[in-house]
Structures are given as structure tokens and as C-alpha cells.
Amino acid sequence: MLLDFGDLPDGFAIRAEHLVSRAADQGVEIGRGDIVLVRTGQVARARRDGWGDYAGGPAPGLSFETADWLHRTEIAAIATDTWGFEVRPNEFDDAFQPLHQVAIPHIGLFIGEMWDLDALALDCASDGVHEFWLTAAPLPITGAVGSPVNPIAVK
Predict the structure, then answer these.
(1) In CATH, which superfamily holds the domain spanning 2-154?
(2) Per DSSP, which regions of the chain are E strands?
(3) Which residues contact 147 (CB under 8 A, 6 or more apart)?
(4) How far is CA 11 from the centre of its chain?
(5) Mean pLDDT of the chain
(6) Is the Cα dihedral 86, 19, 121, 130 positive or negative?
């Protein structure tokens, strides 16, 4: 399912209550095994205004405080249109990508980054349906901890 936040400013920390509220607004229920896509609008902004420091710079994204929500909902994966999934600058001065440090090894969550969600968002908005079948198979690389994917959403 797609949770479309429109165009969030860089540094905006998406909290659990934002995710719950957006899901309710869009009429979707998030549950065990779901793949949740979070559109912040950063890719659309980069296309419009230039890529600048898209890869490595400030970005809207998930707050560290969403770790409990990510664990409790038992979703299978979450992906965003930002380069790093979580809010940048990070919420702690002495930790780089702290949500990654919890979500990947301790929750076992698959994370997608830099997904182009704009066309999907337009389609979802046109018919009000934010749920779809999604596949995003990784390359079969033995021992890898990450891989490019070619996500396909079918409505």
C-alpha cells in the first residue's frame, strides 16, 4: 500500500501517528506481512528543482520513534522515495542512520530506498485505491546485505 504524504520538507520526521493517520485518511489497514510504501515527494522535488544533494543530504523520512510501530505492525517491508529511508539529518548527533541499526538486524525488516513512487501516487489518487499487488525481487547474490530491485505494482 502507498501512504502518500505529498511534498514534505527536508528534515521532516514522519512519526507513527503520521503513518496511522495517513493510512486512515486513505482508507487502508496496515497489517502483518504488508509492504508499505511512503511517498514524501522528494523525488518529484529533485526532478523539478535539480538533484543537488538528494543522495546524502537532508531529507524527510521516518523518525527513530517509528521503530516500535514497525515492529508491532509486523509489516514485511517498507520503502520510501528518499535516499536513506529515515529522516536526515538523523535525530541523534552520535548515530548515523540509527533506525537502520534497529530495523534491519533486530526487526528483520526489508527496507527500500530511492523508489520512484510518483506515477503510482497519481494512479492511486485518481481512483482512491491505495492498495495493490507488489513485487520487488532482489538479485540472487549470495551473502549480500542489499540489492537493486525492480519493483512492480499491479492494481
Answers:
(1) Putative cyclase (3.50.30.50)
(2) 2-4, 13-14, 35-39, 61-62, 77-80, 110-112, 133-135, 152-154
(3) 138, 139, 141
(4) 15
(5) 96
(6) positive
* Furthest C-alpha separation in the chain: 44
Is the distance from CB of 38 to CB of 139 less than 8 angstroms? Answer: no
pLDDT 10s digits, 84-123: 999 999 999 899 999 999 999 999 999 999 999 999 999 9
What integer is the mean pLDDT of 63-78? 98
By CB atoms closer than 10 A (0-12, 13-18, 19+), residue 93 is exposed
Dist CA 42 CA 72 (whole Å): 27
User: Global pTM?
Assistant: 0.95
Please give the grid coordinates belonging to residue 100: 537502520
Q: What pLDDT, in 10s, does the model give residues 2-38?
A: 999 999 999 999 999 999 999 999 999 999 999 999 9
Q: Where are the domains of the chain?
A: 2-154
